[in-house]
Records
---
Amino acid sequence: MAKTRKYLKRTVAVSAAALAAFALQPASAGAAEGPAGNGGVDTKIVGGTPAEEGEFPFMVRLSMGCGGSIYAPDLILTAAHCVDGSGPDDSITVTAGVNDLEDSNAVTAQSTEVTVAPGYNGQGKDWALIKIDKELDLPALNIAKDASFNEGDFEIAGWGADSEGGSQQQNLLKATVPFVDDATCGSAYGSSFIAEEEICAGLVGEGGVDACQGDSGGPMFRKDDNDAWVQVGIVSWGQGCARPDYPGVYTEVSTFAGDIEEAAAGLGS
Ligand code: ARG
């Protein structure tokens, strides 16, 4: 218990920063806990369940309170709003290789440099690459290079809040969220939603399952035709968490695949 509480304290400031960075994030914490229409199973991420050991070996936790995915042995893909801009940066600790962040088997690495999406200004283009000081001996997550995977059911995972206004998690949680088309997402969010750069997912009209504060930067992914995981999104923002009429908004990875590749090359990978 004491351990958990200490961990929570560390992330409070970060959550506040993440909230401030996003106009659409209400600062209020509230309700939204409880059964998520999944038959009364104990619900987490929001509306998720614990990940199996080693199920998502490409998942990492970042010390500022975000998620990320292994793009290459020494590169982490995350959200632009999780980092401080491009350039040398040794402030970020990456925790990898475990579901339980307190697990002694955790592998840690330190950031050396960050590249934020060219033209990022707080709306859309919410991606960044973090170069780290060692090569992780863990599988990378391939990114979608075209729009063909931008449909169907997606997996999300993270150590973020398990309810709107809830606490960060010590153990990795996962959930499945269906694709939401641009028209539906646009009618929820108006001009805040940039269809060419963002992709939405969630249970519209129902709610209960979603990413939430602290999941930002983590991947949304699905299986490709060879049954391998492919990343289609990066957790970016939403109005609250798991609200029936507000799906989660994710960076549309396929749109930026070329830019991400270029940024990776620029970081010497
Ligand atoms: N911006 C949040 C963060 O920094 C992620 C919010 C995702 N919200 C959602 N409803 N899907 O962690």
Note: Residues 78 and 217 are 4 Å apart (CA to CA).
---
Amino acid sequence: MSPDIPKRPIDLLSIVIPIFNESAVLPELRIELERVLSTLNCRWEVLFVDDGSWDLSYNILSEWSQQEERIKIIRLSRNFGQQAAFTAGLDRALGDVVVTMDADLQDPPELIQEMVDHYQKGCDIVYAKRQRREGESWFKKATAYVFYRLLRHESAGLIPEDTGDFRLMSRPTVDILNQMRERHRFLRGMSAWVGFSQMAITFERPIRKQGKTKYSVKKMCTLAADAVFSFSILPLRISLLLGMVVFCFGVLYSIYSLIQKYCYADVVPGWTALVMLLSIIGGAILVCLGVIGEYIGRIYEEVKHRPLYIVRESRNLGAK
Ligand code: UDP
Ligand code: MG
């Protein structure tokens, strides 16, 4: 971009951070955030979304909110998950630019300045792309590698590889994202879907500063399923393919058995073949039904129109 294009001004920058039992890392997070925010040339607000923590996180946050009115808290009624917590924060963020990031300092706050620079040059979405992941198990690295590549392929290149939820978004992007009220949220895909101008900045993802991961294998699988089922019909295609393969196999086997019967009169009761056929076809039908059921279940959850999260209380939200 040419340097003589006037910089886009920023009046207010919002930072949205979901918190689930993060009391160990909070003090360090605040120090890092304030260090970075004090160097930015704009007003700021930080929205902490307490996603049903049962440790001291809320007490710490509410003490901060009394000391500093730019620190805002949204406390959810229970654990709704990281994506819902981000949504609660995005719904209430007032900034013309909104940054979403994790609490554990795996998303280094010093990158915010670089993101802001790109925004000011005209970019609407600046996302951080992990170049290397430190301190994560080989299982997480391997599954993440396969998952992101599959997803990128399936979303026709829409969803960038190796990106998390560390992202800067312009107000128009956030407004559109806030209108997308689907239940199974995969925000990194949804923000990519919005369009506008997007770019990546790369960073080496450090290890979590304090505490343990709040993403259990179950939560990781749920997020992966949300990504796959919301952004692709690949599972439906696979079930169709499986059905077709089994059908062709069935037709061929029928022809074979007819030939046996009429040409060779070889009609020894085929117990083994029968059992094999039954179990293969039965299995294939169940797989297909399961996949269809997964989509129907999601349609059912969408039509219920339940709120995506429930707010128990909030602090400093009136203050701009
Ligand atoms: N988180 C949340 N609700 C959850 C799980 C996680 O709000 O149910 C938050 C957590 O506090 C952190 C962010 O989401 O700020 C990312 O979680 P974590 O670092 O545990 O995930 P990982 O980096 O291990 O994938
Ligand atoms: Mg983390």
Note: The mean pLDDT is 86.
